Amino acid sequence: MSESRPHHDSPLSNITKPTSSSSSSSSSSFLLLSFIVVAPVIAGVILYQLDSFDPAPMPTHEFAQHPVFVPKQNSRMLQGAELIGVGQLLAPEDLAYDPHSGLVYAGCVDGWIKRVSVNVSADDAVVENWVNTGGRPLGLILGHNNDLLIADADKSVVSLPLGR
Asked: Region Disordered: start and end of each range (predicted)?
């Protein structure tokens, strides 16, 4: 049996075979990398015990029903109601009722806070200009310190004392 030996002149003679120390370092780095990636995933599965997501079934039978018709305006809504301050309250946004004085404060689009006193009926109501905020009052509420808090679009929040 003859052994084939590479000649010293051949290009393969300069190739060195890897040693056992370099192969062991690459396998240990692979194991370390695998541990860094796989260990958090396994810990997450164990800690959070991932459950499968099971959504509620889509109610397809609801699509077969006819839609419900809702009128935009209830014709009986204002039946028996009395209108207060017609022509005197310009587009009121909000109102606040003071139970101690019986006065209603309404914030109007022109910046006026109107004070309305209602006696026996709406026909007897007296509407007076109380304070002009110089802005646009959007919301009114009675405060704890005998004041009226006004959310104004231009002035932010305004606090006015009520004169009782």
From this structure: 1-23
